């Protein structure tokens, strides 16, 4: 078969056969098919989409491109949690320890920040000494001992996905729903999971701006899991305003510590508990979801989730005392207050603008090779629906380099909308797809 023919057929909206998709993935991974042809195929997929069968075939081919991790010798049901990316989204560092404390085995394969959305690995690496590059043997040993380990995608796990993602990033095809679904699910299936809880973000601070798009993505990923006999549930959650108050890596670790001590923001606590409960339920620790919610709440209140994260930090080379003594984390050298000129009700906080401003001062990256300043970021002082007076502080920007602070401050100020009437309350969890 010829690559150009497959590009043309997908461009014209035709469905490709399983062996044709496998031919493209294998050829690209081996270097036999050049990048420019795969780039053209990706753009064809972006415009013509893919059927569910094609997405499953693409996922299977990417899993088969590398090593499939066998966790069968690690006792227990293996359940991971994945977010499609948001601003201030640090739920993995809360839900995973709570679920692990309840007896779930959590092989957490995490990613890094790209653009305005944060990455779990970057948050963890804000902790001095924390190692995210574990060998497979270290990863399995820690799972067997503690029930939780955090690791990045290795070169052996779904290497085709790594190559395709880099090309998607360079060809403006990242937002393609079939490509997102296959990318996420190929990594999860390759690490031998039994079940998966998905947090599909929608709104200003998410890749999916419309709920119908988020629903389609959730349905596609749940469908892939079902066809492969994996238990998968997806929550569609609001990402119009940042989750919690902290945006930025060390700042978010501080908020994680507060939340695991039951002193965190209401929205962050609520979502983290629901995600943990679904992990506990899918992990067969309880017979019902309601029982799982009770267990998650108990593990938060008795501090066992907090202690579990400390154990994991110590096991992966970090200093667990950072959760008690925030001065041990990287700290910014400068701060800027953003105040409001008029009073009223906060009607909106554009999460994307907050995320972009944080990235601009060093909390995120535009390219994978960019470095991150773990100390910097934004802490909100108010949330949507709150009544404020003129001159009130909306948020604080924390920085170590003044180069982009002025531009970031303007962007942050533009993110806030003040109205004279109380805004309608928006649900945090919009839908469940299972």
Q: Distance between termini?
A: 38 Å
Q: Overall 3D geometry?
A: globular
Structural class by sheet pairing and helices: alpha/beta
Order of helices and strands: HHHHEHEHHEHHEHEEHHHHEEHEEEHEE
**Rg (CA only):** 21 Å
Mean pLDDT: 92
Task: List the uncertain runs.
Answer: none
- Largest sheet, order of strands side by side? 1-4-5-13
Sheet of most strands: 4 strands, mixed
Walkthrough of the structure:
The strands form four sheets. Strands 1-4-5-13 form a four-stranded mixed beta sheet, with helices on both faces. A four-stranded antiparallel beta sheet has the order 6-9-11-7, sandwiched between helices. The chain has a three-stranded antiparallel beta sheet with strand order 10-8-12. Strand 4, helix 10 (211-227) and strand 5 form a beta-alpha-beta unit. It has helices at 3-11, 18-30, 35-48, 52-64, 92-101, 120-124, 136-146, 159-170, 177-190, 211-227, 249-260, 266-282, 289-301, 304-315, 351-360, 405-415; strands at residues 79-83, 106-110, 148-152, 195-202, 231-238, 246-247, 334-339, 344-349, 377-380, 387-388, 393-399, 416-419, 429-433. It has 16 helices and 13 strands. With 434 residues, the chain is of the alpha/beta class. The chain starts with a helix and ends with a strand. It is 44% helix and 15% strand. Helix 1 (3-11) packs parallel to helix 3, helix 4 crosses helix 9 (177-190) and helix 5 crosses helix 14 (304-315). The model has no long low-confidence stretch (mean pLDDT 92). The radius of gyration is 21 Å and the shape is globular.
């Amino acid at each position: 078969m010829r690559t150009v023919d497959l590009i043309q057929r997908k461009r014209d909206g035709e469905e490709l056969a399983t062996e044709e998709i496998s031919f493209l993935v294998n050829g690209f991974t081996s270097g036999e098919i050049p990048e420019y042809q795969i780039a053209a195929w990706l753009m064809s997929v972006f415009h013509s989409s893919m059927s569910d069968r094609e997405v499953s075939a693409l996922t299977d081919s990417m899993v088969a491109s590398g090593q499939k991790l066998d966790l069968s010798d690690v006792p227990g049901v293996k359940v991971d949690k994945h977010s499609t990316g948001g601003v201030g989204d640090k739920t993995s560092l809360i839900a995973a320890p709570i679920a692990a404390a309840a007896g779930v085995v959590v092989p957490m394969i995490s990613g890094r920040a790209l653009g305005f959305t944060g990455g779990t690995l970057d948050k963890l690496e804000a902790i001095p000494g924390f190692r995210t590059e574990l060998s497979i043997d270290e990863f399995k040993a820690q799972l067997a001992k503690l029930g939780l380990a955090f690791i990045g995608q290795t070169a052996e796990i779904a290497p085709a996905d790594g190559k395709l993602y880099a090309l998607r990033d360079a060809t403006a095809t990242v937002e393609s729903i079939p490509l997102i679904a296959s990318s996420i699910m190929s990594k999860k299936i390759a690490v031998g999971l039994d079940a998966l809880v998905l947090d599909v973000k929608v709104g200003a601070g998410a890749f999916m701006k419309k709920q119908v798009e988020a629903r389609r993505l959730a349905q596609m990923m749940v469908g892939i899991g079902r066809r492969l006999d994996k238990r998968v549930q997806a929550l569609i959650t609001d990402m119009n305003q940042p989750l919690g108050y902290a945006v930025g890596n060390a700042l978010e670790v501080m908020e994680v510590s507060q939340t695991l001590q039951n002193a965190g923001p209401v929205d962050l606590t609520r979502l983290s508990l629901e995600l943990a409960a679904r992990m506990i339920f899918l992990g067969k620790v309880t017979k019902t979801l309601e029982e799982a919610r009770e267990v998650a709440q108990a593990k938060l209140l008795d501090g066992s989730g907090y202690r579990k994260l400390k154990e994991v930090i110590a096991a992966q080379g970090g200093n667990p005392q950072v959760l008690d003594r925030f001065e041990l984390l990287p700290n910014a050298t400068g701060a800027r207050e953003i105040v409001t000129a008029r009073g009223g009700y906060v009607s909106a906080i554009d999460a994307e603008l907050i995320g972009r401003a944080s990235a601009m001062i060093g909390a995120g990256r535009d390219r994978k090779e960019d470095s991150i300043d773990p100390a910097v970021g934004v802490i909100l002082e108010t949330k949507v629906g709150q009544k404020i007076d003129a001159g009130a502080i909306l948020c604080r920007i924390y920085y170590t380099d003044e180069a982009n602070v002025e531009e970031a401050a303007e962007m942050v100020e533009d993110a806030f909308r003040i109205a004279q009437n109380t805004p309608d309350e928006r649900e945090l969890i919009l839908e469940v797809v299972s």
